Amino acid sequence: ELSKIHETIINVQQKLKRKKELKNEIVLVKLKIEQIKKDIEEKEILIQNIKQSEEHTKYLAFIDTQKDINLEIQELHNTVTHSFSILETALKKYERISMNNKLINMYLKSPIQTLLNDTELKIREILSKMSGAIIDGTLELKNTKKEKSMNEIKKLDSLYLTNFIETNNTLQLKLKEIRGKIENDNIISKINTLQQKLDLEQHKYTQTKQKLESIKNEEQSTHINAEIEKIEKIIQEKLEKSVKITML
User: Fold this and answer.
1) What torsion do the CA atoms of 208, 212, 218, 220 make, to the nearest 10 degrees?
2) What pLDDT, in 10s, does the model give residues 45-72?
3) In terms of CB atoms within 10 Å, which of 42, 88, 108, 201 comes out highest?
4) Is the distance from CB of 224 to CB of 15 less than 8 angstroms?
């Protein structure tokens, strides 16, 4: 019976030791969590300060300018794409009887890129001859399609096409310039670097909080009252002595 008492006492001592270790560990982990929270707050403030800086405002202005230029280019291209979509039926029919069927085919597939590469504006000669074929009936079209095609051919004169190419080239040059400014601006790189560090700190914070909960659960589940009551009971029964064990 004394051996059982001794064994139970050793078990209680071990649990007490572990409970003390867990309490100390809880204190250390809580301190670590507080430090991580400070690090997170510092990085959040740094990111916010950069985003409110004149440098970042300038960068955002570059981005807006780039969007505006891209929109201008898209709208410019849409006008020519629309014109060639109206002429698609006429061009396909004229392709069969024209000597320039290869170039016509290129315009049908990719009107914008073909026009930009057509430095001699050979398309004007094609459109002019196609207009004549429509008028003399060589190229047959329904009345509505015929009228629309003729209006579009008239619209796509040399001046219109030249202006399109020059405007496109000017916009592309502006776009290249603004892209260069954006690429040379390292403000986003700064923000991204800080954001990556912030993400790591937030991940570390989550893991450390989970660790704290795990330690707390273990500390709370370490019960010694049952063992103490067992020791008191054995002493009472075997030695006929009433004792009360208290933990300091």
Assistant:
1) -170
2) 999 999 999 999 999 999 999 999 999 9
3) 201
4) yes
Q: What is the DSSP string of 96-147?
A: HH-TTHHHHHHHHH-HHHHHHH-TT-HHHHHHHHHHHHHHHTSS---HHHHH
CA distance 162 to 130: 20
Any idea what DSSP says for residue 87? T
* CA 236 – CA 221 distance, rounded (Å): 27
Q: How far apart are CA 34 and CA 51, in angstroms?
A: 26
Residue 110 one-letter amino acid: S
> What does the alpha-carbon distance between residue 108 and residue 95 come to, in Å, rounded to a whole number?
10
In this structure, which amino acid lies at residue 38? K
Pick the closest to residue 76 from 163, 176, 192 (CA basis): 163
Closest to 171 measured CA to CA, from 59, 63, 61, 77? 77
Phi, psi of 52 (to 5 degrees): -95, 0
- Separation between Cα atoms, residue 186 and residue 59, nearest integer Å: 9
Provide the token pair at 208: 């450390």
> What is the distance between the alpha carbons of residues 65 and 172, in angstroms, rounded to a whole number?
13
* Residue range 170-196, pLDDT digits in tens: 999 999 999 999 988 889 999 999 999
Instruction: Return d(Cα 138, Cα 29) in angstroms, integer.
Output: 90
